[in-house]
Amino acid sequence: MQIHWPLIISTVCQRVGLGAFIFAYVASALFGLELPMNVVAIFTLALLAIGGVASIFHLKRPQRFFNAFSNMGSHLTQEALITPFLGIALLVCVLNGLIFEVGSATIIVDTVTAVLALAFLVCTGLAYQMGSRPAWNTPFVLALFLLTALEAGGIAVLVFCFVLNITAPLLLIASVLVCTAICITTQIAYVIRMRGVGYGVAINAFDNPYRFTFVFWIISGAALPLIGIALCLVFVSSLVAICSLLFAALGIAAWTVLFFKGALKVKMFPMYSVDLNLDM
Amino acid sequence: MSSITFKEDGGKIVKTNCFECHAKCGVLCEVDKDGVLVGVKGNPEDPRSEGRLCGKGLSAPKILYDPHRLNYPLRRLGERGEGKWEEISWDEALDWLVDRVQKITEEYGAEAIAYGQGTGRGTNQWTARSGNAGGRVHHSLSPGNICLVPMMVQCFLQYGMFPTFDGCDFDNADCIVFWGANSVWTEATYTSGQIGRSRDRGAKLIVIDPFFEHPLAAKADYFLGVRPGSDTYLAYAWLNVIMNEDLFDYEFTQKYTNAPMVLIEGIEAPLNEALIKEGGNEQAMLVWDKKSQSFVEIHSKDIDEDLEYRGMVKLLDGQEVPVKTVWIGLKERAAEWTPEKAEDRCWVSANKIRESARAYANAPAATINVFQGIEEQTNCKDSLQLINIIIAICGNLEKKGGNLSMPFWNQMGPLGGAEPATQKELRIIDERAPGTVYGVSNPSAAFEAMRTGKPYPLKAYIMVQGNPLSWSENTAKVKESLMCLDLLVCMDYFMSPTCELADLVLPSTHWTERDYLADEVCSEWIFGQQKAVDALYERRSDVWFYRTFGNRLNPEWWPWETDEELFDWQLEQTHAGITWPDLKEKWIHHVPQAPSREYQTNGFGTPSGRIELYSVIELIMGSKPFPEASEPKESIYATPDVAEEYPLTGITGRRYPTYYHSAYRGIPHLRELIPEPQVIFHTSIAKELGIEYGEWVWVESPTGRITMKARPSDGLDPRVCVIPHGWWQACPELGLPGYPNGMSNANTITSDKTYNDEYLTPGLRSTLCRVVKKGGE
Amino acid sequence: MSTNTTTVHYGMVIDLDKCTGCQACSVACKMENNVELGLFWLRVKRMGPIGKYPDDVEMFYFPNQCMHCAEPSCIKVCPTKATYKTEEGVVLVDANRCFGCEYCIWACPYEARSVNPKTKTVEKCILCVHKLEKNEKPACAYTCTTGCRIIGDLNDPKSEISQVLKNNEDRHFTIHSEFGNEPSLVYLLPRKGAETLCKSIGR
Q: From the CA of B213, how many Å to the nearest CA of chain C?
């Protein structure tokens, strides 16, 4: 399949942004991390906005954007429906403490926002999970949308900690490392699965035209973030954390390129070694 | 019911016939209130096409209104081929042309002018008439030698009719054979539907073709992947099986063919009555009558002809000579070609030859469709004769489900006018082939006369719908020849490569903007092919041009004041039994059948009144009366030295379903289906030469080289390649290029060295060639 | 065609044993529906020739167009409801609603859809509904040079299409039925030339 750049930009932004919010939320719950959630929410909202604009660019007729709310059965409609609520929830998070105080309701606002963020990612993941594209016809797709979000989100939380001079518990850093490792392992598993997904679709990521993207991902999406996070275990460096986040984001983009490239159509007659041809 | 239905909104539906190819399917043209042709679809009332219509016919509105059509008469300014033109009126064009023709005639004689066409738009007879008019020499610079003439004339000589083209009764056949023919693409609408129905009820299908991409090959019960040009061996092997296994129709062979005719052994000439009886008729051929135990004239009734008579006969001059029947002569020849022996030569397994021969011969009714795969060979006379013999001895002639006569073919003769007395002496042929049967000039020799002035100058070439820079073999030489002319006139739809070299280019009307008769290839019918819209710009119909131009030159031969008068004359000459006004109103008319449909009473239209397995006329014409198991004159076996350098046997002329020869590459929605010329050769060759799919490669022969895109395929013998023809036109709307100077024209590489002795046919379907990787030469 | 009062379910049978790849249907579709250059609502594709020449080669033509599924995956994913199915089972795209997100193109297993570069909306075979409404055949079925296309009401056991299906029960084939789209285009398997296909589905 051709590469849809607006979708790559939008889903990467969404994953990093929403992942950061979810991870920050979970980290506060688990490790008592005291991140200012309104700062995280600004970050998330900004990325969500960029992602939203990018996804509108994907549409051939963007002026009809509001038609997207029509089919409740479509994951895209579901995603679209979540968006305004998610936006409002994030806005409340941002303004909480700045303009008004919701006090003890903060936890409720944060929880609702995190749930909406998760639901949004789930809808995106499910939208891509379709039978007609054998590489996508797997729960791996949803899992990977969530895992990449968690990976990038985790690194983003580290960035917040380092930049805002908030002590990051070792366990937090370790859990970011673990999330990243799980994500990378799952991505590798997905790539291995692509080697034979049936319907005549068999993709070796080391072959052209996938090779460059795959190697790029290995470096930017796997090696560098892992090294970066490992370094963060040893010493506090905002620069290392920011670089790790950028590399991870680029890596997710690269991996999404591969994800699109590998989404070959179902062969009409997979029992033949060749595809239908147009020769006369 | 009238042929025009007027609609309430001011538009109309016109019943007429398509002419995007010769099939002339019945169509309904929808014209809106402003006189614009908005749609064309098949007319279910056409008993042949039943409403079906191919992509070419459906595209008629696009072809009619294509912005690249020729619209005005153009006269050359500047050098020949420079592309500078002035628009002139038809009056001026005709005055100028008549003047030029008269001057050339005065200076060089009428024989200095050649008339021609390509496949034609139903104007064969008018091309011929222009040439014949007033005793002119008809050089027929038309591709008759590669299209229709060999198969039609060979049928006439043997059958007195032409039943192997539109006479195939696919609908009722129990076995259908395509032999060197792909009519389901070329005349799809009156073949495919019928064949599908027949196969549904269990009819067997045999495809004899070197190319598995023949659209029926995969479906066939027997696919015989014959080596191009080796059909003689295959046909003889079929005969071997059919004769030795007694699969032939004994009664038909005995009673209605000249198989029992007695020949003198050795010289293999007929034993005629004058040889054995004082005062006997030397025209009288003899058979041995078992009933009276005597030689009787072949037309005799109530006899019991001996198919296998052999004996000694005392001639009047006292000589005693051995005699045998045609049947024995044929059987002896066939005996040499066992399926095993044929297999070596034709590359079809002996087993498959046997089984397919049995399938054909055992079918209650079987039909064979023959065409240019057989025709465009230097041994076409023999192959065609053999196939005709097979059809005849299996009793499949004039039989439901077999091969049927179609009346038009027997009646088109007079339209072209009598052949001038000077024709035979002044025609141009040379040592390459005598043309014993097809009595016109060898096109190649005529082109040479343009260049050399030998044996006499050929100074002018006037053609309607002709593009020899596409149809003629060795087109580089043709171009050189055309450049030597004093007068080149082309009437056409588009500015073809030949038009580009012309002195005068005339715009033809599309079939939707002209009235005409649809008769040839129309089986048992004739149609009023009336126009749907008025002619656009200054386009004129081909018939109008011939009639008007002819009338100015020679009113005796072209006396008609209007096209309608000419149509009426044509209808009268062809015994159609209807006049133009009635036909136009009725649209379709059933034509009286040929007498041979009732051959039991009327016999066949040959000298013996029988089907002539042994062709007496060909003997008289100086050809061989029996078919030979001949090899193409250029082939891997005939010219192994050439084959060493050029190991592939190339087939040119394979058809596309959306193009008509070289036409319509410029029509965007057709071109996008088949955008580029692809040379097809076996996957193993591609691997061997390191050639990838879609790579531009050279295709080279001793004659020249062209470039096409490589398309490796599993569907052909590794020793064969398939080279499509007709690529010259660009399609600017799609940004697809044209192919100037014959750079991708198949005929740039076909040979002008060897020709069929009888029909002057070059070996276009078995050109020795090679595929070369670019940069690797 | 049916004049039955019960619900009509339009379908088409395409007999791959008859199709000769002449492209008349492709052109007819283009002319009838004024389909943009470069786009095909319908195109005849080809499998092969593949195998060992001359006796072990397979080849068949495959007219490829919208299958007008009873359970179309395109409709499920379309966020705008531009893609919808008529009561008679014809799947259509409302060009006034479609915003060109292309998800339906991805979700269709049959390569039936494309974006029109001029209108910037998705389009595809409409089974010539405008003709069906007038009780006429779609342009492709009308013009087919081989008679391999039968259009009609699948719900009417007396319709020609139902009869053809009944008479060729051993050759029915719907593409990727395992996706549950339930195509209304039913192909009849080639009697010859598709041995690998037939074997893989146990025929």
A: 7
Which tens digit of pLDDT belongs to each residue from B557-599? Answer: 999 999 999 999 999 998 999 999 999 999 999 998 999 999 9
Which of B200, B222, B224, B667 should we substitute to test contact with C (largest number of C Cβ atoms within 10 Å)?
A: B200
| C42 to chain B: closest CA residue | B673
**Of the listed ranges A190-199, B407-416, B583-592, the one predicted with least confidence:** B407-416
Contact A279 B673 (CB under 8 A): no
d(CA B5, CA B684): 58
Region B30-51 average pLDDT: 97
Chain mean pLDDT for chain B = 95
Q: Which of B538, B504, B445 is nearest to B754 (CA)?
A: B445
- Residue B353, sorted as left (phi over 0), alpha (psi -120 to 50) or beta, turns out to be alpha
pLDDT category at B1 given cuts 50, 70, 90 is low
Q: Report the alpha-carbon distance of residue B577 to residue B592 in Å, rounded.
A: 8
Question: At the topology level of CATH, where does B74-147+410-485+492-590 sit?
Answer: Rossmann fold (3.40.50)
- Read off the pLDDT band of B776 (50, 70, 90): low
**Contact at 8 Å (CB) between B661 and B469?**
no
Q: A5-261, superfamily in CATH?
A: Formate dehydrogenase/DMSO reductase domain (1.20.1630.10)
> Residues B171-187: pLDDT tens digits?
999 999 999 999 999 99
Pick from C23, C62, C106: CB nearest A132 = C106
Query: What residue in B sits closest to A280 (Cα-Cα)?
Result: B674
**Chain C neighbors (3+ CB pairs < 8 Å):** A, B
Rounded to whole angstroms, the Cα distance separating C195 from C199 reads: 6
What's the CA dihedral at A188, A192, A194, A199 to 10 degrees? -150
- CATH number 3.40.50.700 given to B640-773: no
The ipTM value here is 0.95
| Amino acid at residue number B407 | P
Taking residues B338-354, what's their average pLDDT? 98
Listed residue (B458, A34, B62) closest to C27, CA to CA: B62
CA C62 to chain B, closest CA, distance in angstroms equals: 12
Residue range A123-166, pLDDT digits in tens: 999 999 998 999 999 999 999 999 999 999 999 999 999 999 88
The order of strands in the sheet holding B588-590 is: B516-518, B525-529, B588-590
Of the candidates B51, B212, B670, the beta carbon closest to that of C49 is on B212
Judged by a CB distance cut-off of 8 A, whether residue C203 touches chain A is no
**Per the confidence metrics, is the pTM higher than 0.80?**
yes
- CA C144 – CA B704 distance, rounded (Å): 40
Per-residue DSSP letter, B487: E
**Interchain proximity C146–B39, CB inside 8 Å:** no
Instruction: Tell me which architecture the domain covering B149-249+335-409 has in CATH.
Output: 3-Layer(aba) Sandwich (3.40)
Q: Which fold has domain C10-69+84-91+125-197?
A: Alpha-Beta Plaits (3.30.70)
Which two three-digit tokens encode residue A201?
């679709």
B218–C22: do the CB atoms touch at under 8 Å?
no
Touching check for C43 and chain A: CB below 8 Å?
yes
Rounded-to-integer distance, Cα B572 and Cα B579, Å: 8
Taking CA atoms, what residue in A is nearest to B658? Answer: A280
Question: Could you give the CA distance from residue B295 to residue B287 in angstroms, rounded to a whole number?
Answer: 5
- Cβ(B225)–Cβ(B649) under 8 Å? no
Measured in whole angstroms, the distance separating CA B583 from the mean position of its chain's CA atoms is: 28
CA of A274 vs chain B CAs: smallest distance (Å): 12
Check pLDDT > 70 for residue C5. no
Q: Do A279 and B711 touch (CB under 8 A)?
A: yes
The ranges assigned to domains in chain B are: 74-147+410-485+492-590, 149-249+335-409, 640-773
Contact yes or no for A280 and B674 at CB 8 A: yes
